[in-house]
Specification:
260 residues; alpha/beta; Rossmann fold; 11 helices; 8 strands; 19% strand; globular
């Protein structure tokens, strides 16, 4: 992986292929490796950039708490460092929250964006309490125990065990300080549902038919003409692993239609 330094903190990323730029943002306790099955499909005809977000993977984990806007600003720094003026942006789960921040504050840098198993809703009060419990588990029991509890719920029932094991392996590499900082960032994120119809960009909303984390009704929050919706049958919260070819087809079709 390559890296840039932003305010003294390293941001690591992969950068593959040539053409229009697709930027992929992973979810909580993931890394750029979450996209490892998708990038080969997208890399033919596109330049695909996938960073390890602040506090995740090989990137630095400065002291938290973080904010979603701060994590979005890291992404802008990376785009500037790579001299990327515009891109198509797709964010998985937490990466979708960051995508919405970017769409709200830096829409001129985007050609279109997508939420992959994500939502414009803020955390409910119950979810906010769960974030605090997550931080407590991470700090008291360690990242391994936390990830072991997290991963099974990300996949559809009956998912291949090797996929769960890969997600665990990636999750174990998350610095505990980074996981805690990101959990608190998600807890404090605002309601950004109105960004989707208001932003004036093509928007892709992707849901897994068996997603127990973000069900389709929390992803599909807009009927606006700029929105394309897709449901992936048989997938839970991790279509990047459960149905990578189908997800890649949806993304490519969206980009082609946005260019018409």
């Amino acid at each position: 992986m390559e890296k840039v330094t932003c305010e003294g903190n390293s941001i690591c990323y992969s950068d593959q292929g040539e053409g229009e730029v697709i930027l992929l943002l992973h979810g909580f306790c993931g890394s750029s490796a979450y996209w490892e099955k998708v990038i080969p499909y997208l890399g033919a005809g596109y330049r695909v950039i996938a960073p390890d977000l602040r506090g995740h993977g090989a990137s630095d984990a400065p002291a938290g708490p973080y904010s979603i806007d701060q994590m979005a600003d890291d992404v802008i720094f990376l785009l500037d460092a790579l001299e990327v003026k515009k891109c198509y942006l797709f964010g998985h789960s937490m990466g979708g929250y960051i995508a919405l921040s970017l769409a709200e504050r830096y829409s001129s840098r985007l050609q279109g964006f997508g939420l992959i198993h994500s939502t414009g809703y803020p955390d409910s009060e119950e979810a906010r309490e769960k974030r605090l419990k997550s931080v407590s588990t991470i700090q008291n029991d360690g990242i391994t125990d936390f990830v072991d509890g997290l991963v099974p719920g990300l996949f559809a029932p009956g998912a291949e065990q090797q996929l769960l094991e890969r997600a665990r392996e990636i999750g174990y590499s998350t610095p505990p300080r980074g996981a805690a900082g990101a959990a608190l960032a998600m807890r404090e994120r605002p309601d950004r549902r109105e960004i989707i119809p208001a932003v004036g960009l093509p928007v892709l909303l992707v849901a897994g038919a068996e997603d127990g984390i973000v069900p389709a009704e929390r992803t599909f929050t807009s009927e606006s003409a700029n929105v394309t919706k897709a449901v992936i049958s048989g997938a839970g919260h991790m279509s990047m692993y459960e149905a990578p070819q189908r997800l890649s087809e949806i993304i490519k079709d969206f980009i082609l239609s946005a260019n018409v």
